[in-house]
C-alpha cells in the first residue's frame, strides 16, 4: 500500500507540473470536462428540484401581501406623476409669461461607472462616456437622488468625474425652504459637505434641503445637492458651522446621468419665446412670418436695380425737357452732339430726340 501510495503521489505531482508548464494535457482536460459535466448536472439536480418545488408552492399569503403592497406603491407613484405633470405645465405657462424659453427637462444620457480613483485623498470616478459621445468639460453628473459632480477630464471613450465631496470642489447652493444662498464645499469625507461663510444669524436649520442655485453657470438650478445634518452656533464666531449630507449615493451609485444643458444665450431664448407666444396668439402668424422675412430681400434687390436706371433716366428726361421748353432759342444750343451721347443707358430715346433738335436748329 505504501508503494502504491508513493507511486500515485509521484504521478500526481508529475501531472501537475506538466499541466502547469506545458500545454500537452489541455485537450485531455477539455475532454474530461465534457464527461464530468453530466456528473455535475446529476449532483446538482436535487438542489434545483427543491428550488423549483419551493418556488411553485410558495405561500399564497406572502404573494397576496406583496401584490397589495405593489398596488399601493403603484397608486402613490401615479399620484406623484400627476402632480409632477401639473407642476411641469404650470412652470411652462409661467415661463411663457416671462418670455423665457428655458428648458424644463434637460437632455440627459445614461452613463455607467467603470473605475474609481485609488487615491484616498481624491474623490474621482471614471465613466464609460467620453468625447466621442458628446461629453464636454464641466458637464454635470447626477444619479437618481441628486447631483454627484462634474466632468473634469475627457478621453475619447471615457471621462473622469470630480465628485462633490472632493476637497477641491465647491458648488453654489440655496436652501429650498427660504432661498438662502451659500457655497457647499467638499471635505474629503464621502458622507459630508460643509457650508462656508454662513452668517451665525442665518435662517438655516437641521433637515433643510439644499438645491443647486445655478449661479455658477455650471450646474442646472433646482437639483438636490445635500440635506443639512448639523448647525453649530458659536457666539464668539461670526459664521456658523453647517454640515450637510449629500443626497446622491456617491459610494453606491453605478449608473448615472449626464446633463446636457441648453447652449442658447438668454437673448436667443427670449426671442424664440416671443415668437412662440406670437404664434400662439395669432394662428395665422406661422404663415405670415416667413412671408415677411423675404420682403427686405425682395425690396433691396429692385432698389439696387432701379437706382442706376433712375440715375440714367434723369439726364435723359431732363435734356429733352430743357430742349422742348426753349424752342425759340435754337442758336443757344447749337451743339447737336449731346443728344447722341445720351443713348448710352437707353438707345431708343436719342434717335427720337435727335431729329427734333436738328429740325428746330434748321428752322
UniProtKB/TrEMBL annotation:
Superkingdom of this protein's organism: Bacteria
Biased composition (Low complexity): 272-289, 305-355
Record flagged with keyword Translocase: no
Keywords recorded for this protein, A-Z: Cell shape
InterPro entries the record matches: Cell/Rod_1, Cell/Rod_MreC_2, MreC, MreC_beta-barrel_core
An individual GO BP term: regulation of cell shape
CC terms in the record's Gene Ontology section: plasma membrane
Pfam families in UniProt: MreC (PF04085)
Region entry Disordered, spans: 266-289, 305-363
All copies of domain Rod shape-determining protein MreC beta-barrel core, residue ranges: 114-259
Gene3D superfamilies in the record: Rod shape-determining protein MreC, domain 1, Rod shape-determining protein MreC, domain 2
Family annotation (NCBIfam families): mreC (TIGR00219)
Family: Belongs to the MreC family.
Protein name: Cell shape-determining protein MreC
Species of the source: Pseudomonas frederiksbergensis
Lineage of the organism: Bacteria, Pseudomonadati, Pseudomonadota, Gammaproteobacteria, Pseudomonadales
